[in-house]
Amino acid sequence: MKVIGFCGYSGSGKTTLVEQLIARLKLAGQRVSVVKHAHHDFDIDHPGKDSYRHREAGAFEVLIASDRRLAKIREYELRSDPTVHQLVAELYECDWVLVEGFKHADVLKLEVWRADTGKPVQYPYDPYVVALCTDSPDRLPEPTGLPLLDLNDPDAVTRFLLASADRYEYRFPYDLGREPAADAEPGRGAEPPARRDPAAG
Fold first, then answer.
1. CA 5 to CA 8: how far, in whole Å?
2. What is the gyration radius of the CA atoms in the chain, in angstroms?
3. E strand spans, 2-144
4. Model's pTM, two decimal places?
5. Cα separations (Å) of 56 from 43, 47, 49, 59?
6. pLDDT band at 49 (very low <50, low <70, confident <90, very high)
7. In 10 A of CB 4, how many CB atoms?
8. pLDDT in tens, 101-155
9. What's the first-to-final CA gap in the chain, in angstroms?
């Protein structure tokens, strides 16, 4: 499984780019999943639905399934902000995981930047940024030796990812001889996994 993040401020075009890459990677025969950071008050359930009533009654998790799709809704017992690694661990086997919105996550990332947003860049300070997707390469606020990808050419971004796919092969942080904490379940007060040294790959 390969994992690649997409960081950048609101309005930079992250969601559009991720949407375009999903379609192109799927055409290339890849199974793609997405981990997306959302605002604290998001919900996929609606009052009056059976699943909503089960949650309101106090269920910790509600699993809803049909012959076409499955959804799991978990109510955190304590307020929690799960890490990317905890969320990736929830996924079914796939070829690529596209991570959107976890700006400070310790996974390799493409930074999405548009000069017209007036927002700062992340690449000078984040060793996990491996390339820049931008429509304004001549307006970058700081020079860089990182690859510059055309934000308006998702085919080129797809080729960039596939050409070095092994680089994004995911290693769960616990596989380095460490065991997960006994209470490593998001929402139950678990400590987040230790950060990996970016120099280690």
1. 10
2. 18
3. 2-7, 32-36, 61-65, 70-74, 96-100, 109-113, 129-134
4. 0.80
5. 13, 9, 11, 7
6. confident
7. 21
8. 888 999 999 999 999 999 999 999 999 999 999 999 999 999 999 999 999 999 9
9. 15
